[in-house]
């Protein structure tokens, strides 16, 4: 429309997402968000609502983008939980190595700054961690281990994933991050193999 500035909402969300990802919620000022998106405060509020509402939309966009990649990695290895976890970490490490996005993970960054979030935003971040746990737990389900062991392994994998994000922000070299991921996969493999042996012995 003549006389009105046109912009791509998806592109603006991507740029805002990078601000939250890089700076964290508390330090993602409206000025920084406006500078990144090219929108004034009025346009930001008019398009996305409050800062909190914009943050929620950025979380949703991040979760949709990377969640789809995680699901594809898990789905590519049905019946092979160890390989599925390896594929999951491959996606994580690819994201970390991608120079076009900030270091770390938006969810990990937000979780680390939970004290600065509103109650609703904190609940959303916790929900994304829970969703990640459910994905990993589902990938591990096709194994002889008991439910408690699988729950613990899923928590372990999520914890390693979040640790990789934190380490990457601290500048840990890619080779060291990959070593952590390999050890995590070996731990999963050993735990599942031990569960299989114990199951055979009990039968």
Automatic annotation (TrEMBL):
KW Mitochondrion (keyword) present: no
InterPro entries attached to this UniProt entry: Homeodomain-like_sf (IPR009057), HTH_TetR (IPR001647), Tet_transcr_reg_TetR-rel_C_sf (IPR036271)
| UniProt keywords, alphabetically | DNA-binding, Transcription, Transcription regulation
Would the keyword Membrane turn up in this protein's UniProt record?
A: no
DNA-binding span(s)? 29-48
Domain HTH tetR-type: start-end pairs: 6-66
According to UniProt, the name of this protein is: TetR/AcrR family transcriptional regulator
